[in-house]
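README: folding subset

This subset contains proteins for which both the sequence and a predicted structure token string are available. Records are stored as plain text. Below is the entry for Receptor ligand binding region domain-containing protein (1294 residues), shown exactly as it appears on disk.
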Amino acid sequence: MRLRDLFTATLTVFTLVSLSAGYQQCELNPLQVNPGANARFALILSVRQNDGNEECSRVSQTALQSIAAVEWAVNKINRTGLLTGMTLGILGPSRSYTAASILRLLDGVVPPVPVVSSFASLPELRQYYNFVRTIPADSEQVKAIMQLMKHFGWTYIGIIHTNDNYGINGAEALKKAGKEHDICVNIIYRLETTDTFKNSSLRNGLTLRIREIQSRTKNSEILIVYFGMKSVISSLFQPVYLQQMIELRKVKWVMSDFVGTSPDVLTTSLNMQHTAGIFTVSMSSIPVPEVKTYFDEKWATRLIQPQNDPLKRLMNEVQGPKEEWNKDFVMSNIDSVYALVEAVRQAFLNKCQYYSTICDGFDTFLKTNLVDTLRRVNFSYSSLNDTYGPTELINAEHGFSFDDQGDLVRDTGTPLYDINIYDGSSFIKVGNFTNDQLHLDDSLLTVHTAFTSTCSIMCTECTEMPKIPYRYMQGATGSGSSLFLGIFTLHDKNKTDEFQCGSFRNHTVGYDTIGMEAFFHAVQEVRRVTGLNFSAIAFDDCYSLNSASYIVSEFLSGNMQISDGAGGLVDPQRVAVVIGPYSSGVTVPLSFQFMNLKIPVVSYASTSPDLDDRNNFPYFFRTVPSDIDQAAAMIQIIRKFNWHYVGLVYVDNNYGSKGKELLMRYAIEHSICIADPIVVSDSPNEDYYNVLAKMNSKKTSVFLYFGTDTVMRNILQKLDVFRDNFHFMFIASEDNYDILQQFGAVSEGSLVFKIDTITVDKTFNQYLRDRTPQLETGNSWFREFWSYYFGCNPIGGFDKRDFAECSNGQYFNDSSISKFVNDQSVNQIMNAVYASGVALKEVQEKLCIISPPPCENSMERANEMAAIFQDVKLNISQSGSTSQFQVFNNERNGNLGFEILNVQQSGNSYRNVKVGSYRSGSLTMENIESVHFYDQDGRRTQMKSECTRELCSHCSVYNPTTTTMSTATQTKTEKPLEELRTADVILIVLLSVICVFLCISITFVTCYFRKKIKDLRLRMLNNQPKIVYANDGAHHFNTLNLRSEATSNGTIHFQNEERSHGNDSGGVVNEAFLPDNYLHVASSEKASSPRISNPAGYSPLSNNPPVAPEMVKIQTRPTSAIQNRPSQRKPDLPPRDHPQNHKSNNSTSSLDSGNLTPNGYPKMGTGPSVLNGVMTPLSVSGSVSPRGSEVNSSSGQSQVQPRMGTSLQNSAQNSPLRFSPQEYSLQDKGHSPQTPNYTPPNQSPIRTPNFTPPQLSPVSLETFSPPLNSNEQRRTRLVSGASSPDGEGKISQV
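--- output ---
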């Protein structure tokens, strides 16, 4: 075998077809070249095009040119001779997607099969070790296009691409590179690889889309990059379709390398002026005329013996004329063949270095090491002679190699791409891309320098921000640092979606954005001061609680992942302190969340008194005073000028509402009348003319204002329009001093508060001098501010607005810097950062020791951490001396006061003049004459605001004697006053009618109830309870005849006439009462027994009741005199409605009198007893007073005290009340006053033998006054045992 045998190859051509979803083989019949050769490789190309129906269509002449180039190279090499028995590998494929499919099939094959492609440019193919290519990757072509854009300053471009792998990946690579180079890349249209533009809807859609893009560009000029197959763009530029494209004037094109320098794409156009000036990127190639000659000869003889030549057979299938020769890929095809052959040669030298022919084992060695050897190829055609290589490449000393990823590496100084321009008839090379740099011949491009392709307005599709915009600054030494979390208000809230941001807050000339800049600058400085490694991150809450809550939740929960710039992610657990927020309405609810996490919050602007609550906000601090101080200062100013009636306007948020409450409270305390407050929404839809009309109706020119600068600006803007109709003077809360000065023509004379400014940082002014609007990852806030502040678009980027381009070398001037560094809000932010940094250093030294805060110990000892923050002091330099300033007072509020500014005329402008101060609760205004007030015409005047009956009637502080004129000025319109008086008249009439109706109703009700009460008293007097007297002894009672007599002093005396019922002892029956059961309570000897059972067969209505051994002694109500009556006379009793005649009761029950004198006993519950002429209280053992009287349980007995209201006379020693074992009861059956016609049932009278009527004390009616209720009018009975008229034994009332 001979060395020249190495260079024999077999060319196997697989015909593939491109589909929308991939590639399929059209026919599986390989075309073999030199089938007898034994050293073989395969060439895979897309020979046929797709017809759109997944069928093979016409043959591609570009593919035939590639086959001819490979054949020519193989034939060149084969001049050395033949070699048997070797398979070298694969050349191709011509599509990246096909190459990826083949490489996946070959993945894992042992030994590995090398794939050398001269067409597949997809960067992702780098992952396959057995793949190398002799064409640059698409990423290199994208670099060349981006540098072309930047060279001409084209910052807004469109892309049209095909939907194959080549077009899709190329477009995405361009879009990604555009972001890196500040170029907005807008993907306009995606075309199918089979589109021929015969469908008019496709052409119309593309045309409309291009016009839409043009409407956003300056001068309607737009550059479009085409990244796709040559056949598709060729169809678009056909004459019949190009006529419609002529309408798309001012469109410039850049074509990718698949179009390259193919003249047939553009020469078909009838109107060359619309294709002239098109840029193309092509593979840098050295022409090899021999290859073109070889192809031309084949084409010319294609009809001669085509059966023996596969290439001729394919040529015979070509429809249409022969296309222009495309030299772009000729050199890469030749390179692929020589690369593979050079790898075999190197392998031969390594294995058979001492042999001139193939040595033993070479075939196995080659299969095992061919891929490794191929990747190490470093080939130069200068090593060949004209016999074995192309003369042009040899003379040019062309060479190539591969990098570690298998990508082509050209010799130093050898271009990868050429930049061409089509002049209407041919392509002219105007530059190249060599060693990652674009080189252009500007002398050939003068006509293109005037072309612009930039946004005239905001390029919304390219101003993509993160889902949550942010700005992050990494710590000096990487991760693990304490993190400052800043929350600022850079945008207003969105009108329709509170989770999104609204317009930029440029009305404050960027103070909010400058405040954020001050935040990051201060973090950098506090690093230097403390030596600690702090990181910082800032968010925009967009003046919305919903937006702020969402941002904080997403960040702290870890759902929002932010790169720290060092390969890691920002750790939300490293948040050591929060600086902000601005609005109290946002700060209050967010602080609850941070308090639970024990993270200190230091606000630079929130002044709500809600935040003074140390129970709910134990770790909250602020560098500004509380609104409590500001409201008190406002009231003191009103008192200073002796104003008694003022108006009040406040904003409907936490800041305004709390301020209003404080002002109303302090005004009452100081006898100041405030008109009905006017609330203003901070919504953009607020009607501010209506606000002015409401203010005008209050009849005063002096108005307190408690709210934000946003609303104040809107009020003053509307007031400026209607200055002839309205005139007001404001006493405005802090943060409004700049707005009032800007609108001095309508706010002159106003007083406004400004928080004292103490500056701890002296380097911020230099920071601002060096600040430029460079692009930053994550946000464009500073560039946005720059646009509004200077009224121009910063250079670079595509965040354009309706401004001109900013000039180079634009910086803040001294006036702007002075304004920024002296702004109190900016200084408060820096003070908050410095105080927090110094405090955190002490926290680390005392609590964390080793790690930076927050640490576990600082969280557990959060109160100690808060105490460290409260005591922090900062060094300040003033007038060359240094002193310490304690940032927070005892309430953890800012240890500052207020300056009081007066908006005064200064020539043709206005300025804020300091006229006083408020510190430590004291107002200082030494010269009141320094305060200037103005009338509606701008003349100096004295401002008065007094109460009148009409204005101050709603105020509790109004003094009716005040009749002074209400205001210093009268408005020119009287219509609101007339409307107000009409409303007052209507209201007064309505109130009068209501009052008259109420008076009549009250009179009627009073008369009605007085009559009812009178009737009730009469009925009560006519239905007083009646008394029955029971006497001991063996006498029987006769029926009682009752009557009552009233003495001159109103006392009623009772008489009892006895009637004998045949018993000599003279018993009587008292007809005034029905017979009742007695309640027997155990004697003192049997006190332990609660009740005595009822004897069997006993009935209280029986004619023969059992005899009791002991009787109940019942007390009667005492009177002041006792009338002696004959024993046979009845006592005069109060009138009863009972019938006077009752059936006699033949009961023979006897009552044992013991050692007592046989006196009469009144029924139980009627009052004290009279024993032997002496009244004694009732004593019951173990019982409860029927009226709730006090019970004395000494000696086993309970003393029932006389009921309140009874008159006790001749009281004597108490007598015990004894009960017999039998069960008796005494019951007052006198019916209630409500039943005057009550008739008791027929019962037998109680008879007591040998009874002598006692002399009884009359009952005084005084004991029943005042009138008793229905329960008190009843008599109480005690029932002992299981049986009673009421049921169970219990205390019951009748």
